[in-house]
Structures are given as structure tokens and as C-alpha cells.
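Progress narrative, work stream C.
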Amino acid sequence: MSTVFIPAVLRPSVGGVKSLDVEGDSIRSVVDGLVQRHPSLGGQLLTNEGDLNRFVNVYVNGQDVRYLSGLDTPVTPTDEVRLLPAMAGG
């Protein structure tokens, strides 16, 4: 299972935990598993079409999946997945 690190802004949707172990062999399957366990994350992480929301950055072992294979980026049980919602401000 990959370890998914949850940022503070999303923790209320997952019971306040900082990380979760989620099974999957790709970012898509990990995100789907996370949303299946915590449905309120769905609208925050994914568009209606099932793509990553443009305001959410996902990293696997420090690499942005948008520069890899997006949701099809492979993961292994030892990988760290980090969710980082984009912040706006001035």
C-alpha cells in the first residue's frame, strides 16, 4: 500500500489523520481508493470527468505527477503520495 500524506486543509474529510495507506498500482487507483473510503474528497480532488482538479497537485516521491503520466503514473507499495491543494493569495 502506498502512503498518502494528507494536507491540513483536507484532514477534516479523512477524520483528521495525517496519512493513510491506500492500495493501488497507479495514482488513479490510489485516488479512487481514497475517494471510495472518504467520498467527500471526490469533489475536492477530481473533476466531474474524473481528472485531477487543476487546483490539486499530486506528488509521488517528490515528483509532480503532471510531469510524469498524470493519473496513470505507476506507484508501488513503498511510494509516498502527497496531495497538495494549490493556494492562492497575494
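Work stream C, second folded protein:
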Amino acid sequence: MEKLGYGPSNRLKIKVSVRDLPYLRDPAVIMIDQLKQVYIDGELETIDTTNWFPKVMRRDYIVGLTGAGSGPDPDQTLQLLYGCGGELNYNGYCSPEVDKLIDRQSSEANQEKRKQLVWEIERKLAEDGARPIIFYDRRATCWQPRVKGLTLMVNSLFNGWRMEDLWLDN
């Protein structure tokens, strides 16, 4: 930052936009605090969820912190988040080289080779500053013993919200 002219007496001022949800807002506050160490003063801008996606699609932000769900297999999100033209590739990152790697890992049957390809993709994304991953969160589901028929998914907290088999035991 000092090479770019920033320092203790000349700090970069930015807005950090985030959906107004605790599980996203709290990490944004921590990130803003950490940015102070590199002469960046962030101002938190919380956005109601109904306005968030239109704002992101217009690219009407300086820094935006958003969540991106995944699971144990990155194949379901690599193209969406990082592929050229991916539906959730909000910042428009595009690398034909990364697209080829995403396709290769998706069709690789050997798990060890596939793991190496995914690590190569991760390195390339980090080098390009494609869409930095700021944090990984953990979530859990709790329920009472009288709740019956609840199926907890092993690949994502958000995949099992179908309640047609759920019932309460008295």
C-alpha cells in the first residue's frame, strides 16, 4: 500500500457492502478492522436482502462480502462462482485457463488427480485475486428429541429443508 502512496497519513477509504444478516455482517466488521492494518478505512454498508442481489448484479459496490455455499465437492460451485459467464460470478472474473481446469477436474475419475487439479485451480484463483475467500463458516442444526423424520444432509446444511416427512412426537 505504501508503494501506492497510502500510509498512516493517507488512508484509502472504501465502503464494504454486505447483506444485513448477522452471519455475513459480523465477518464484514472483522474484515474492516483487519483492513486498518494496511491503511484501509472501511465503512460498513448493510443492504437489505431484497436490494442486495440487484445491487450486486449492477456491480454497484466497491467491496462486497457475500456468502457462497458449497459442500464436500467443489464441482457444484466452481463454474458458478469462477467460470467465465458463471451465474454467481458477480465480479465478472474470466480466465479461459481456469475454465479448462474446471472442466478437467469435473470429468476426472481419479480422486487424487482431481484433488491436484482443484488445488491448481485454487492457486490460480488466488494469484489472480479472482474472488478472495475471506472466511469459512461452520453451521449446525439442533433439534429436540421429539422431532421425528428430520433428515440431516452430509454435504450441506441447506440441502435438507424438505419437511414433508417431519412430525412431532408427544
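The chain has a mean pLDDT of 89. No further action is required on this item.
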